Target: Exodeoxyribonuclease III
Amino acid sequence: MRLRLATWNVNSVRLRAGQVTRFLLDQAPDVLCLQEIKCRDGEFPAAEFEAAGYPHMRIRGQKGSHGVAILSRLPLEDAPDLEVCREGHARAVGARVAGIEVQNFYIPAGGDVPDPEANPKFAHKLDFLGRLTAEAARRDPTSALVITGDLNVAPGEFDVWSHRQMLKVVSHTPVELEAMEALRAAGGFTDLVRAAIPDPQKLFSWWSYRAADFRASNRGLRLDHIWISPGLRKAALDGGAEARVHDDVRAWDRPSDHAPVSADFRL
Model:
């Protein structure tokens, strides 16, 4: 059995419900994790996604901002709720599907100033990563776990348009890179997209709205990730990792600033 999991910061699910449906029909993921849905649970356009063949959902909405959800063609079972956001935002939702625990995150962007003393938003981001790292360290590494979503850090030199210039910009500062590496090491996680598309190929999943032509400027960041625990390496890596960034979606009319990312598992 092939299971395809995708993640997408949709930047308002009501505004882009038609684009979500188009992506579901075009790419046929079995599971789609959404971030920044920007609506409350009852405002989520569930009927449209049910009609597209995705009747199983986990939604954690929030008025005005944040919010995460999981859509699935396959039945979903409950997974632990991870209380990793100190502010109580709707930034995490989990479910089990086909024996895999999927934890979907929208990690705080962190504001503009990379100083936790001067910038509470940056302090919140580091706290979130620290709590998630502690949770990962408690997990059984042989379990089947996926950590995915908009993790809001571009962790590698080739995950940003300019490593040197971005080292002073939130999303690629040394303290964030250290926090991401601590998270990866705590869970023994494999970055599945990089396993499929290794360095030194530049790879981005986000491009600013400021650029008139995102492809021409290509000043992107890889902020959206699919990480797997050691217990899923065989399912994801045997026969070669299969993952991609759907950058064509970023070129659709009135797009999100993020592109979807997907990966395949063999169960």
